[in-house]
Amino acid sequence: MIRIDIMRNAAGDIAGFRMNGHADTAPKGQDIVCAGVSSLAQTALLGLGHYAKKEFALDMVSGYLTMDLKYEPDAITQAILETMTLGLKEISANYPNSVRLTEHRR
Predict the structure, then answer these.
(1) Please, what is the Cα angle at 28 between 26 and 99, to 5 degrees?
(2) The predicted structure's pLDDT at residue 25
(3) What is the pLDDT of residues 4-27, one digit of tens each?
(4) Strand order across the 56-61 sheet
(5) In angstroms, rounded to a whole number, what is the distance separating the alpha carbons of residues 6 and 15?
(6) Secondary structure element (H or E) that encloses residue 66, with its range
(7) What is the DSSP pairing of strand 99-105 with strand 2-8?
(8) Phi and psi dihedrals of 8, rounded to 5?
(9) What is the rounded distance in angstroms from the CA atom of residue 44 to the CA atom of residue 106?
(10) Rg of the Cα atoms in the chain
(11) What percent of the chain has pLDDT over 90?
(12) What is the separation of C-alpha 79 from the centre of its chain, rounded to a whole number of angstroms?
C-alpha cells in the first residue's frame, strides 16, 4: 500500500508531503497506480522547482519520498500542491486498497 501524508500548516496551506510504500497491483514497472502517484508527485516537484523557483528539502529513494517547503507556502505553491493533492485523492478513491491519503496539521 502507498501511504501519503499531506502536511498542512496552521493556516491550512500545504507545507510538505510524505509518500511511502508500493501499490503492488501489478509487477514492478507495470503498476499504473504506482506510476500515477509517482507522476503526480514528481510533476509537482518539477513545477515547484523549475516554474515557481521555490526551494524545498527533498528525500527520495525507491518507495519513499518526502518534501518540505523551505519557506512559507504562497499562492503559487498552493496551486501546484493542491492540484497534486486533488489527483492523489482521485487515485485513492479509485484504488482504496492500494493508496491511503491522510492530511495533517502541523
Answers:
(1) 60
(2) 67
(3) 999 999 999 999 999 999 877 666
(4) 56-61, 64-69, 14-20, 2-8, 99-105
(5) 8
(6) strand 64-69
(7) parallel
(8) -110, 145
(9) 21
(10) 13
(11) 86
(12) 13
